[in-house]
Amino acid sequence: FSNRRPPDLLQCAEEAASATSAGKAALRKAGEADEAAQPLEADPDSLDVPLSPSALDRISLKTSRSSTKAQKLESLAASLARTKGSSHPDTLGSISNLAVLLQRAGQHHEAEPLHRRALHGREAVLGTMHQETLTSLSNLGVLLHSVGRHHEAEPMLRRALLGRHVVLGPFHPKTITAVNNLAVLLQDMGKLHKAELLFRRALEAKQVNLGPDALETLQALSNLAVLAQTVGKHDEAETSLRRVVDGRKAALGMNHPETLWALSNLALVLLTTGKHSEAEQLLETVAEGRNAALGPGHPETLQGLCNLALALRARGDDSRAELLLRRALEGRHTAGLESTHPLVLLLHRNLAVLLESSGRILEVERFLQDALSSISTPVPCNKGLLHDVPMATLLQMSGHHAQAKHLQQQSVADMHSRLGPTHPETLGAIHALALLLESGGEHQEAERTQRRALEGREGTLGPSHCDTLLSMSSLAKLLQATDRCQEAELLLRRALERKEAVCGKNSPGAVRSLQRLAQLLQAKGQSLEAEQLLQKAEERRQQVFGSGFAREIS
Prior knowledge:
73% helix; disordered N terminus
């Protein structure tokens, strides 16, 4: 859990990868944080079985060595229970360590009752504010978070934070750990502004304790920067990520994985705000750096190729983008990624969209047939937004509309149940369902679904958030397709105004909205204003991409 990686620009805004309506997917998640949460905390009460976080990271119950460690801990806990009693602090410490070991190995079902047993025993014997009790609270909260039981995790992580703040003070490392754990949970629950306040608190504490250039401080700054980008604070995100890049480059070197993650996240911000040339250069650096540091078959290297291909597509260089996507798909076998891995599905989806937009229909059909032939039937669903959306898109493009619709509806229902109706990922799945319905010709149902996504995003993310504006533009396109041009025009003008204000006039989103508005006015017979807007859009595009850019909007 502590080393969870961000999706790293899995799809850099629909605006950046101009796809056909059949191929669009609402995968805009920029990345959570470099440091999703602090490590689980083990109790150093057994010299026979040391359980430092670094040691725990190397343990897997799939190996005989780790099985031996688990057996030793079970034996130790049983021995201590016989000699000292089941409620003795040493016994509870061994139970807690065994729970941590199981949790690190992904055995959450087995770890949870042990965490609860340790917590209840420590509360009874040591009291609710004792540090070992707070450790059990924290570990159980992290476990519940990692399996998606967010509402159960929140009160536990809040109690752990409050206890450490009172007992240890606001700047103690364990208190900062508790602040960060709660911040990541709130972020995953969609409570972005509350999470932002906590990330700022963690950053300030690390600056006081460690200094502004310490790696842990840079990690906290990166967390905050990625969240700032998510809530539309692009200027702050860019400034912070540049600091992170410079700091990590100085401390770790250019090709260190953490430096490359920071470069990749900075590239996303720059793409969003229309600074395409620098963003593309950064993504080139990331792709080359990961290839050198991790090898050509590493998943992060393949991710870097996928990201660079998206940036190239936005500039109109489909030829090189296709080469990179095919290279990444070939490398996925070396990486050992299954056909249903989210990255593999995304690569298939992006290449299929590229081929379709180039008019290579027969080649698309063969490619989709090969891509789907290796996927089991029935198609797995409820595997998360980054799996379900590209899978549904591939099915839709293959002519399996009913199956794609069912998959995406199941995804929406699952996220609604697990995360709640207003969570950003739930709303992203609803938006993706609306796009799929639109591409299948179900305009009435698509409109209802897109309005649901728009209303939810306005309430949760705010009226000027990029996801909100994406839903607004998509709804306008639907209205235009059903001959409600006046309402569509009002939405497009509102979206354009907000995109220019938030992301800049030269941002891809703003330019695309300008083009779509021009198309609408042309259809209404307002040719003069339409021509003026098209000329303005072309001038802005040339400022970003140069005169060779020739991408048409979809």
